[in-house]
Fold:
Amino acid sequence: MMRLGVNIDHVATVRQARGVDYPDPVAAAAIVEMAGADGIVVHLREDRRHIHDRDLAILRKTVKSKLNLEMAANDEIIDIALETVPDMVTIVPERREELTTEGGLDVETYYDKLAVLTERMHAKEIFVSMFIDPEPKAIELSRKMGSDAIELHTGRYCDASTPAEREKELERIRAGVEEGLKWGLQVNAGHGLNYFNVKPIAMIPGVEELNIGHSIIARAIFVGLDRAVRDMRALIDEALRG
Ligand code: PXP
Structure:
């Protein structure tokens, strides 16, 4: 079965829009888990625009499934991760001015830094994933630096403006999955997935986990969080049945 990790950052975005203490991502995590998600994903950004240190600390104690911390290779955040010990970290690039994570990691330029980071996480038995574009070189380097998993960036597929472009991006992701499996990596995928574009990705054999955030939280405003998670789970299951 393909696992579903739900990113709850945007519950915190709504809270931060008013600088109050609700809605609480900790409460959201419990509902998401009861709705059948396989993991909770949060991104502790350097600018703390949504998830805060307090959220991560409490989630570490309350999440029963799996806590996946998305983080940049930033010294302050690395220290927090080593102290918190999530089940898994997904290393992402981060620029202050971006709206969301716009591209995969540049594993070639930051190879040494990422290799050291991976080793430090492994010393705490934290599972490590690199968020990369579906490029053979990035996949190979992720393996070489000791990463356990890769998460293939599906943003270009989601943003494709024509069916031909979409098919081309889908093909790149399929090839990336093959390549990752060949190197013995766990292969996950995510970014920009929603109720209308998830199925073709969910049908790719070998993808172990999908990480989805914005579309689920957006739907939750209308139908509730429990139903939003279950709807996504149902679509993934439908795709798997073919
Ligand atoms: N995977 C990674 C590595 C991400 O950085 C994000 C965004 O935080 C997601 C998945 C989820 O993306 P979206 O919110 O577009 O579903």
Notes: The chain has a mean pLDDT of 96. The beta strands are 3-7, 39-43, 67-71, 88-91, 127-132, 149-153, 186-190, 207-212.
